[in-house]
Each structure stands twice: as C-alpha cells, then as structure tokens.
Fold this sequence. Notes:
The protein is of the alpha+beta class. It has 2 domains: about 190 residues, 4-Layer Sandwich (Double-stranded beta-helix), CATH 3.60.130; about 140 residues, 4-Layer Sandwich (Double-stranded beta-helix). The chain contains 8 helices and 20 strands. The protein has a 9-stranded mixed β-sheet with strand order 1-2-3-4-17-8-20-6-5. Strands 12-13-11-16 form a 4-stranded antiparallel β-sheet, covered by helices on one side.
Amino acid sequence: MSNVQDRPIQRDPTRSLVPVPVDALRPEAVCHLPEQGAPPLFIDKAEGIDLTTDAFISWVEAKRRVLDALILAHGGIVLRGFPTRTAEQFNALVGLFPGFQNGYAAGMSPRNKVTGNVLESTRMVEDFKIILHSEMAYMKNYPPRIAFFCRQAATERGATTIGPAREVLKRLPARLRERLEAHKIHVVRNYAPKGNSRDAAIVADAGQVGWDSAFFTEDRAEVEKICRKLGIEPTWNDDGSLTLVDVNEPFTVHPVTGERFYRNNLHTNRTAGGDWGTESCASAGERRPSGHFLDDGEPLIPQDAALIRNILEDIELAWQWRDGDLMILDNLQVFHGRETFSGPREVMVALLG
C-alpha cells in the first residue's frame, strides 16, 4: 500500500504555553494556551493537588458547564496529569457528557468497542498516516464532539494531530469554494463481507472492514434499519459485501456559533498511482468504487484535491501524548488525524453530543 509520508509538523504548541486565568477551575487545575492562539487549551492538574480517580470524576461532573464552554471557546481541551489510567475510568468520565446517539454505526475506520461507549481509535496499520479530518465527515449525522484517551503513548511519534478547521475555509480560493457550494457530495463506501476483519489486529485498508464490524451486528435487516435512520442507501453485492451511498453538503454550519466549516472528504480520493487518501477501490466487476464525488459524478480534480491537502498539512499541529492524557475536541472547529508510529500505542475514543 502506498501511504502518505510524514511531513515535519508545523510546531509543537506545548513549547510556548502561556497561562490562561480560568478561576472556575482553581485550585485543582491551571490552564495554558499555545502562545499563537492555536487549539487546544491545556488544563493541567495543579501542583500539590492530590486527587483520586473518584474525586477527579466528581470534579469533572461539577465543572462540566465550565469545560463545555472552554471546548467551545478554544475548539478543544486537554486534561493532563489527572488520575485517568483505564478504559473503564475514561468511560466513566465521558459518561458525564451527552453521548452521540447514533454511535459509530456505518463508520469507515476499523475499530472495535473497548468498553461501554469507548472505542479503539483505529486499527489502521502503524505506518499509515491519517490526514486531518472531521470525524465521520462522510455522513450527514456526525458527532458534535469527540474525546480521546491515551492509555499508552507510542515509543516514537504516534501523535493525534489536530488543526483549526476554520483555516481551511479561510484559505480556499473563491472559485473552488463557489464550485463546491453549487454541488452536493455523493459518498460511496464499500465494506467487505461479514467476518472479514473481525479478528484482525490491524487493518491495511479501510475497504477490508467487514460490514458486521462496521455496523456492530451480523443481522442484515438491522443494517438496513440503521441505514434508513441515517438516510443512507445500502446495496448488497453478490460476493456478500455491502455498498453504501450517502448524499451530503460540502459545508456544515456550527449549531451553536453559526460559523460555517468545510466538512467532507472530497480531497481524499486516490489517484491512479494509489497515493493520498484513505478510500478503497472496487474489485473488478464487483461494486462501485469507494470515493467522494460531485453531483456530476466526477471527483475533485487532482489539483484542487492537492490544494486542500496542502492546507491541511500547513495547519497541522502535534505534541507527544503522555499516558493518561484526555482530549475533547469540537468536531467542527478542530480536525484531527494520526502520525505514523512505532512501538505499542493505545489511544481510545468516545463520540459525544
């Protein structure tokens, strides 16, 4: 498989943090923000404060409204130095926030449930770089927020990269923005036959994910029911695979701020050489190719796709995970991705309302 190569990250925002007075979180926590105003807001446990896990969960519950406001204001927060060590503790913490009711049904990234509402971040191979994106940007129904928990940081690299999404729309040329505004996005996704990826420790291509893994059920009728709920057109193929077609808008308005964001994956279709992107190609004579297409059935031209990818690379930020870090992002304001890595790495996610 031909993968996107790692580029130098623009900067590590933790190298130039400045204090931010958030009195409502004192004395248990102190806040810092990257000097240049990039997300996220870092919320560190204050020195000399001793919190048990139960006390930390109670503190988050008491400060929920403050944390909600900070996520909205800064695009995301990182809780660092607090006593979160297990998936069960992470599940208890995210359970204090509204959950995303549709879960990860029909999701494209290969991932299994860990416990409760906690999922693996992905099982994509470690030498595959995941470019910046909005979670479930290929669907009309998407989680407003996403939470990450680092149980074990990778030995080398392995950052969950982020980037301020408003920069994408700001930097899009007017002629490209106007072209996108005149179209809807037709998204075609293919899933392998049932059982294809069930026991796989890692997956080299998203098209290898079995439909039972993607929908968390082995019942075809249940899959069709979920698709009707989500407004997706399903087609069962002769080889037992499943093709989904979804029609979405290229831009999404934030439900709270009213700001408009680029939220789709038009720029991820593969070129003939297989470079760039995360979509799988159709097997000969089997099914429609996976990808993102305009109303006229054409993909974004390579030059425009490359332009958007270059914007995403320019705004990419990363810092090294620390064991126990917990990050919550506004899924429209801040995109996320993943560096390549080596060594053991365990990062989990939860989809929030």
